[in-house]
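Same chain as my last thread, 418 residues:
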Amino acid sequence: MVVGTMIGSGIFLIPSVLAPYGSISLLGWFLTAFGALLIALTLGSLSTRVEKEGGPYAYCHELIGPAVGFFMGWGLWVSFWLAIAASSLAFSGYVSAMFPLFDHEGVFRTLISLLLVWCLASFFLLGIRGVGFLQLLTTILKLMPLLLIPALGFLYGDQSLSETLVYNKEVGFFEQISKVILITMFAFLGIEVATIPANETINPKKTIHRALFFGLLSVSFVYFFATMGVWLALPTDALSNSPSPFADAAEILIGPIGATVITIGIMISIIGSMNGSLLAAVLLPQSMASDKLFPKMFQDKNKYEAPWKSLAIVVMLISVVLLLGSTTNLVTYYEKLLILSTLTAILPFAACAIAELVLQVRERHSHSINIFTLLRALGALIFSVCMIIGGGLESVIYGAFILAAGAPIYLRYKRTNR
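reply #2:
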């Protein structure tokens, strides 16, 4: 779940988005990986203390309170279906790379994106066990393009590393590194997915903690290696405007047939990431509904134990997002969804770091305060806050608006509970 959900559309399109930032991108990858590791360790620690389905929502609900739990769960839920919409756009970009007769903009792009989302939803209706099998299969298959193309880029790429790493010196360093960290963090979203289906996980206390740590280390290596390899294969100008950088790199290094094979592998990878995010997007409101903070219908299941009403609502929201951006440039709209999805996920990460600190304070009389845990939680909190600031005022306003949109639901169910 960790590797399969994290490695999705992000790494396959992010090299194009990061191309103008040059060497700052490499520093950004490293800092993001370190910050994500702090978040993963914090989530892993909380998963051993709070035995409840829902991940960050459950941790905040139990340790801080229902209000914080609701808004963090709401933000994370929105983040999931925005991420699925962004991933479906990346998928349509690679479809257009396979079939040049179809443009990656406009009606065709929207139809392909919608079709993919609806197909995954139909598969989900057959039960969570099938979702788990699809996740395993796509995770195995997706590693081929991520390791093969970068390796060939290092061996046969024509681009000079010194030219590739040039960055825009007219823009402030802090402004650029903040933006890069925010963009690359999207590729690490999915850390939290493994914490949500705790009830469906064997021995969740040990399994979730280990999966978060080793999954993140594996993914960090793959991301850094893949970015460098693609950069060495494609000129910066071409990379900046490419909707399918891995396919373009494969065509240069292997030829048309190789590019087709790699594109299929990438599309499988995106499907796996969307599959994991869809699982989390459907199960999270089910957990919130069990606490009477969300409509009860989110708990309704079909004969295969799949929460079908929750699934239907998520698919409807994703469809609306895709239709609204049907006339916008693919890479531009992808970047907007990427930033919004990241911001709405980061706030729950920050809240989980605070929950870890609250737990330390509560237990200070019965247990001595663990300095390592304290510093780790503080580091995760600082990293999350820096990413929120780095998103810029406009993105923060959009993020605040998304969180505020959940207020009427919370107030209604708070009144009902009272």
